[in-house]
Amino acid sequence: MEKKLKLYGFNNLTKTLSFNIYDVCYAKGARQQRDYIDYIDEQYNSERLTGILCDVTDIIGANVLNISKQDYDPQGASVTLLISEKATENMEIDRSCNMGLVDGKPLHPQRGASRDTIVGHLDKSHVTVHTYPEYHPNNSISTFRVDIDVSTCGEISPLNALDYLIGSFDSDIITIDYRVRGFTRDVGGHKLYLDHDITSIQDFINDYTLTKYDATDINVYQANIFHTRLMVREMDLKNYLFNTDIYDIPPKERLRITENLRREMIEIYSGMNIY
Which of 41, 53, 32 is nearest to 77 (CA)? Predict the structure, then answer.
């Protein structure tokens, strides 16, 4: 059993994980671009995103106290989760909390969910998810971005959910930030600014997943700030075409589309306009 650090009272460190993915595709023409936006809006609606947040809550070892969600017309949604680090007796829970139930039925029946926006409040912290589909006006490149923030207090760690989050989306580019803020004390009163070993966010990602990406680290160890960027290494064009058969595209056009997709990825990965 892993040796645990003995702390005085509640662990006051705040551990924040910001997980950001981009999915890039080719949608030719205005009609296909609109269809792509509609497809993303349907695939990642509030129900599916709620399920993802609930799964993250399970993985990090927290407990759902309350769920509220709303889809909007013409598009978009919001979801709020109130969760606690440890299980709470029913008699201790405020009567306004629904424990994830409405009229005795789960708000996330398939444990999968989504739409545009999700916000989850933990006790003293929060979980948020936002989606941003968009497209280039000239070169038919469309991009779907997902921002997820998990901020926790106590012993639970958001890093435990990384592999699940990466696997939940088609991730061409991933940027991850992790920061530990504040301090807590051991039983002797000594201040602790970090309660676990970490040299890189990559240490918490499955080795097989890492083989599929090129990765770069930018870490500020003295400030407990860690940053990792990943970009997919290999591209199979047929997986990047929206409602288009690859065999309907001439070979030279395939090369041009592939080059445009790769350029888009490189610029997003670099965080600057290069081409």
Answer: 41
Indicate which residue of 68, 130, 200, 227 is catalytic.
Answer: 130
- The CATH number assigned to the domain holding 151 equals 3.60.90.10
- Is there a domain that residue 265 lies in? yes
Annotated catalytic, 97? no
Catalytic residue among 54, 153, 168, 171: 153
Q: 250 vs 46, which has greater pLDDT?
A: 250
Which of 68-82, 181-195, 240-254 is modeled with the greatest confidence? Answer: 240-254
- 25 part of the active site: no
Dihedral over Cα of 191, 193, 196, 198: its sign: negative
pLDDT above 70 (res 180): yes
Domain count, the chain: 1
Give the Cα separation of 148 and 161 in Å (integer): 11
Look at 54 and 256; give whichever has higher pLDDT.
256
Catalytic option among 125, 140, 142, 151: 125
Q: Does 4 reside within a domain?
A: no
